[in-house]
Amino acid sequence: MLAMSMIGFVVSNQDFTFQQSHLRPIIERVHQNYLIFMQIIISRFSAEMLQANFWARSLHNLLMQKLDKVSDSSGGSNELKIDLSVTTD
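RESULT FIELD:
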């Protein structure tokens, strides 16, 4: 939330000349941190919950796809990805 406030302040500043090269890395980091935060929350779900609850399972699968996509687009860097996956046998 702090990062979004900073982005809003910088963009609304009259002296600011929009430079995409400066703003893009900030937004990418906010997105990566959000995905990691969601991964931590989903790691708290039990395996039974993921099997029984369609929405929790769908969210888990979507999150794993997004994390893989983010790590692929950043040159394969998995430095921020944490392994908190829950097995869904």
